[in-house]
Write a structure and sequence with these properties.
Two copies of one chain form a homodimer. Chain A has 309 residues and is α/β, with parallel strands linked by helices. Chain A folds into two domains: 127 residues, 2-Layer Sandwich (Nucleotidyltransferase, domain 5); 166 residues, ATPase, nucleotide binding domain (Nucleotidyltransferase, domain 5), CATH 3.30.420.40. Helix content of chain A is 37%, strand content 21%. Chain A contains ten helices and 13 strands. The first copy, chain A, is globular and about 60 Å long. Chains A and B meet through strand 10 and helix 8 of A and strand 10 and helix 8 of B.
Chain lengths: 309, 309
């Protein structure tokens, strides 16, 4: 049995998996209120201990612990270096986990873990060259070349959301102009939906947003489209075009066996994928939605021991 | 001793190299007038025979023949499938070369061979993750990950020149809009120089172009800049900005150890590299000019046997 831990800005989830990456036990704890590295470490370590105790699993049965973290990671030393939304200051998680549970431990980037999870136990299993595109607040990337995660210098590879596609476009949080995620992330879509709906408050889309306290979410647009709102369709088509341009950049650079779309919006399934495939057109690269949903990161972390780096 | 062959739209060059990739003998033949696959095959095979004869090298001494081709390649079967500027229709070059010279033979894409040459015997030797950017009529790419060339499905990886950076920009020959090569290739720069100079015929740049039959070439702009022509500097700065945007895309995606700039314009050396490095800013990826010049493809072809694929 192995442990996978997926650390995020609001929660940390951890699970015990068997050799086939079936989740045998799972737990989740809040991280949003953490103010110090010590608090955060306690939540991760004590939470994982509690997971084992609550499920009557002795730590002798654990053969490996893997952990996915946001932000900057030193994979070699197993240290979480820094992150935007968590009080991380060089936390040696691998050492802490290894000493606590008496098994080897590894750390990697959260986007990499999600990509690795889908590769080891999900939709891209069996494919050697895969790029996972995670749509959310930004656009994250996990790149698998020849069956291995591409880390790059200082683990900085995979920042596909900061690929500029619109040199005269909007300023991105990273400081550059026209990054893919400024137009094609889920957040960019929601902002655009809210912005456009102000011009047409009596449209179906406008009313849905008004009924939700002037806010849209990842589903609003799809609901309006299902009710044949033409403005919603038009906004969606523009967004798909932005998504497609970056997808083709990934295809032209890697021509991977598969691009996996993950992140919350991928739950829309064919409502999202069919128009996207249509926009991309004829191409030998498969385009699929992730199969592990929110568990991809946890499962990928538990599978980090299966990568030769 | 090994043979390397670099097939291009106007000439084919072939060389015999020793174990350290020093060129012992070299020859070049015209391919521009070839009209049939048979003519082209003869020039390659007979030219290589002649190279050995002229230099008194018996074919028994040859242990490997490698060849770089433009266009579509089947690396597995060693077949040149098709190309834009040459009469290639599924020519089984690897088989032909192997039978003629009694040694194993391999084929790969010309941009890949140039990248592999710099990696095996040039500026990027010893670095495991390297992207070679070839500036010319278009922008070609050769991507080395973990010491191996990235081929992608159907050998279509590495088309970095067709990475869209300006979604509202100019139509590219590939049919897409705003590809990197529409603004950052040497051809794009020359076209821009000719276009802008029309507005200022009395500038130093305008006069240089007028004296050259209304045409610019890769050197015109650098000459005008060396003579402190401000318009030339302004055009160059805009071009460097376009180049830098794509460079950062490559960095954000791969964060390679090194980006190698090759192609004719790389002969400008620090006149090109210093402003480019300045535009890129602080970054752990090294930016260097290729060291093998026009021989990179030939040497890389001769070294194809050293890649485990």
């Amino acid at each position: 049995m192995k442990i996978g831990i997926d650390l995020g800005g609001t929660t940390v989830s951890m699970g015990v998996v068997d050799d086939n990456y079936k989740i045998l036990a799972e737990a989740e704890f809040k991280t949003a209120d953490c103010r110090t590295p010590e608090q955060l470490s306690s939540i991760v370590i004590d939470g994982t201990k509690k997971l084992l105790e609550d499920n009557g699993i002795s730590k002798e049965k654990i053969t490996f612990i893997g952990m996915g973290c946001p932000g900057e990671i030193d994979t070699e030393k197993g240290i979480a270096v820094a992150a935007d939304n968590l009080p991380i200051e060089k936390i040696p998680f691998a050492k802490m986990l290894s000493e606590t549970f008496g098994a080897p431990a590894k750390l990697d980037n959260d986007a990499n873990c999600a990509a690795w999870g889908e590769h080891m136990a999900g939709v891209s299993k069996g494919y050697k060259n895969v790029v996972t595109v995670t749509l959310g607040t930004g656009i994250g990337g996990g790149i698998i070349v020849d069956g291995k995660l591409l880390h790059g210098k200082e683990n900085h590879a995979g920042e596909i959301g900061h690929m500029v596609i619109d040199i005269h476009g909007k300023r991105c949080g990273c400081g550059r102009i026209g990054c893919w995620e400024t137009v094609a992330s889920t957040r960019a879509l929601i902002k655009e939906v809210e912005h456009q709906a102000r011009y047409a408050p009596n449209s179906r889309l406008g009313k849905l947003i008004a009924a939700n306290g002037s806010h849209a979410n990842g589903k609003t647009l799809f609901i309006a489209m299902s009710e044949e709102d033409n403005m919603a369709r038009s906004i969606f088509n523009d967004w798909i075009r932005s998504l497609e341009v970056g997808m083709w950049n990934v295809i032209n650079i890697f021509r991977p066996d598969m691009i996996v779309i993950s992140g919350g919006i991928s739950k829309e399934g064919e409502n999202l994928l069919a128009p996207l495939r249509h926009a991309v057109g004829k191409c030998s690269t498969l385009i699929r939605a992730g199969r592990l949903g929110g568990n991809a990161g946890l499962i990928g972390a538990a599978a980090l021991d299966e990568m030769n780096i």
